[in-house]
Amino acid sequence: MATGQAPVLETLAEINGASLARTELDVQTLLLVRVAALVAADAPAASYLMHIAPLVVSNIELESIQDVLVAVAPIVGAPRIVSAAEKIMEALGVAIAISEAADADAAAADS
Questions:
Q1: Where are the domains of the chain?
Q2: Which residues contact residue 75 at a Cβ distance below 8 angstroms, ignoring those fewer than 6 apart?
């Protein structure tokens, strides 16, 4: 039986961390390459959600992600770009909701 509180997510996080150690790409470039790969794979919103925190921590701006979408559009096609944009927005919405809930919990704990 898998171990840990969230064994699948923990394993995915470990895999992501291991790939950082095995490449000479800077973190920002690596994350943007991953966004391009997610687009090409027509990844679900949850996959984008896993990359939002690292993107934010690495100070990657939304404009850079838009540049990636524009750059891969001729390769993957318009339907994939529209799908990716929708899933990115969905993932951002989930991330914001999680952040707001954490802030509300922290405020309640301080009261």
A1: 22-110
A2: 40
